[in-house]
Design brief:
Low-confidence stretches: 1-21
Strand content: 5-15%
Helix content: 40-55%
Largest sheet: 3 strands, antiparallel
Number of strands: 9
Length: 657
């Protein structure tokens, strides 16, 4: 009996550790335009995607929810596209246009918002979650770069509707693209701002090799999950358990990251940069001499210090582009970890070189096997049944080309699913960075395939994708559908819209706009969100990887040390205490009250409050409650601040219907 049980256990162990199935996941398959399914309610669909959604509803004998009313729809549209509420004036103008033709009014509003520079601010923040963006890199890098230029580059890329393949190429390899604009080197921040780990070089090479291999895995994880929806890091120690990614595949791509070094990059051409680099090196030597003299204090040679300082100023003034902005990026340099003396370690970066990595057995860089040439995933044959070889430098540009070329079906599905997620709250595939066998199956596979196929056909335009979704009857539904709520509480069949809580950025920005405090200035250096006089949009708040801002942290801002595919929404006592007792809400409530007190009478002040916050008139009951509270002290700032505070922490302000 014991032998039989042991045999069964051994068979189970073999199955659990078996190589991944040869069958490709649905996400790897070629894209094709799908046939529209037949539906009974033929007059409901407004866009092609609506047919796929309605077909699923009808299978479950569900009816779609009625359309959202104009006010709700406009608020949803504004928060989705620019992360700000509409003003009362914008709501009134939309309402007037909608009386003639609601469909036309919605289409025109979408176009206006897509053309707004604030669109890029909203959608760049979604991307920065994936890119583990930070304004403060590790101090041991001694970087002079300005990380915020990557954030601004992403904003501009969304505003320009940069085709997604170019968006990918520039972030992985802008400096290697023929005829590239050096200003776009800011895009290299995707890699250049990656988390780095401290390497104590007094330790033996065996220890440091593991730290370096961990960094390579971090890059692999970020690139794989962001662009391909694959957890490539799972193949570091063994073949991927579910997806067709072998351990050899892992080290074929890891060789790319073993051939690059995090480095400040200039935003001018190499030809112009060479004399600047030499001048900066000379200035660094002179400044070192100046510091050495100043450390002598009383014995310092002031005449020599003055002479050295004049030399520094002369070099700076006589060197064109000396103050050129630097951005966080990478450069071509193969890294080898070598012993230094009996116990220490040295990091040997060989500039302009690249290297192939051996397989690390069980992920241990100190126990190696076969050397794997740099190439793309074996599941995507490029020529004669073999994957694309990475033969140009580190292979960064080859990798980018493979992601948007050889793996285009997968890449397109991943991006389409991400856009869908931000419009509906959940993606068609609920695991946006795990698309394939390892993630959840899509609820509407034909719809995802059809949208991805047309996304590619329409030039990989993200703004085109927004139009397709936002003009649909599916997205324009209300949240009210009692039958759907009862039989499909998770709303997998999309027979209604989901009520969604504002993320922390949209919430704070809405507070600023409502109180007429918002600074609409675009781009620039990060600001301290804790400062009382900081009225800039939250995307411009300083992000510190190791010391996160507590306001953001309490309100579910993602950890900038890791790729974050979706916000994990929580409801905690800290959030409630912040809203009820924190100085931020108190400040905004008082500011709003001061503005309301400028109105001529009590009723007009109450009406203005509702118009500013909710773009509607107060209901009769709401008017009565407000009058009862404010009637005895109609001009008292303290009472009005309490009233405004209650409105600002209401669910109607915090949630989108």
């Amino acid at each position: 009996m014991f032998k039989v049980q042991l045999t069964i256990l051994l068979h189970i162990a073999v199955l659990l550790n078996a190589a991944p199935a040869k069958e490709l996941p649905w996400s790897f398959l070629p894209l094709e335009k799908q046939e529209l399914p037949k539906v009974q309610q033929t007059d409901w669909a407004q866009q092609r995607m609506d047919h796929f959604v309605l077909s699923k509803m009808e299978e479950k004998e569900l009816q779609p929810a009625p359309p959202a009313d104009d006010r709700v729809l406009l608020r949803r549209l504004y928060f989705d596209l620019i992360g700000l509420p509409p003003t009362m004036e914008q709501w009134t103008a939309f309402q007037n246009r909608a009386q003639s033709c609601r469909t036309t009014a919605i289409r025109e509003e979408i176009e206006q918002l897509l053309a707004s520079p604030h669109y890029g601010e909203r959608w760049a923040r979604h991307w920065l979650d994936l890119a583990r963006y930070t304004d403060k890199t590790a101090k041991w890098l001694k970087s002079a770069a300005e990380p915020w230029r990557y954030r601004d580059w992403v904003i501009q890329a969304f505003n320009d509707d940069l085709p997604y393949p170019d968006f990918v190429r520039r972030q992985l390899a802008n400096d290697l693209i023929e005829g590239h604009d050096p200003k776009d080197n800011a895009a290299l921040g995707f890699l250049g701002l990656s988390p780095t780990y401290w390497k104590e070089l007094k330790l033996p090479p065996e220890v440091i090799k593991t730290t370096v291999a961990d960094e390579w895995e971090e890059r692999m994880d970020a690139v794989g999950r962001t662009f391909l929806g694959l957890t490539l890091g799972c193949a570091r120690c063994h073949d991927h358990k579910t997806d067709p990614v072998t351990q050899a595949d892992y080290y074929a791509i890891a060789g790319v990251f073993a051939s690059v070094r995090i480095s400040d990059r200039p935003t001018i051409s190499e030809e112009l940069w060479v004399p600047v680099r030499k001048a900066r090196e000379e200035v660094a030597k002179l400044e070192k001499e100046i510091d050495a003299q100043k450390k002598k204090k009383k014995d310092a040679d002031q005449e020599k210090i003055s002479e050295l300082e004049k030399k520094v100023e002369t070099i700076k003034s006589n060197t064109p582009h000396y103050d050129v902005p630097m951005v966080g990026g990478v450069m071509e340099a193969a890294l080898y970890v070598k012993p230094a003396g009996k116990h220490g370690t040295t990091l040997d970066y060989q500039t302009g070189k690249s290297r192939d990595l051996p397989i690390h057995k069980r992920g241990n860089p100190n126990v190696v096997g076969e050397v794997i040439p740099r190439q793309f995933l074996g599941a995507f044959p490029f020529h004669n049944g073999k994957p694309r070889s990475f033969e140009h430098g580190s292979g960064r540009l080859d990798l980018a080309e493979a992601i948007v070329g050889d793996a285009a079906p997968l890449s397109a599905r991943v991006m389409v699913n991400r856009v869908w997620q931000h419009h509906f709250g959940t993606g068609l595939c609920a695991t946006p960075s795990e698309i394939g066998h390892s993630g959840e199956a899509p609820t509407h596979p034909d719809l995802l395939n059809d949208l991805a196929n047309r996304f590619v056909k329409n030039g990989w335009s993200i703004k085109w994708l927004h139009r397709e979704v936002l003009q649909s009857a599916t997205w324009q539904q209300s949240i009210h559908n009692s039958e759907s709520i009862e039989t499909d509480p998770a709303n997998q069949h999309l027979a209604r819209m989901n009520r969604r809580r504002l993320d922390v950025e949209a919430w704070r920005d809405a507070l600023l706009q409502t109180t007429e405090s918002l600074d609409h200035t675009l781009g620039g250096k990060p600001t301290d969100l804790n400062a009382n006089n900081n009225f800039r949009r939250t995307i411009y708040g300083a992000i510190h990887r190791r010391e996160p801002n507590q306001f953001l942290r309490a309100h579910d801002f993602p950890d900038p040390t890791a790729h974050s595919p979706a916000r994990q929404l929580t409801i905690t006592p800290l959030q409630q205490l912040f809203s009820l007792n924190g100085p931020t809400l108190q400040f905004h409530a008082e500011t709003l009250s001061k503005n309301l007190l400028k109105e001529p009478n009590l009723q007009q002040r109450i009406r203005t409050a509702y118009q500013k916050l909710f773009q509607r008139e107060p209901r009769q009951k709401e008017l009565e409650i407000a009058k009862a509270f404010l009637r005895d002290k109609p001009n008292d700032l303290h009472h009005w601040t309490q009233y405004a505070h209650a409105l600002l922490v209401s669910n109607e302000f915090l949630f989108i219907e």
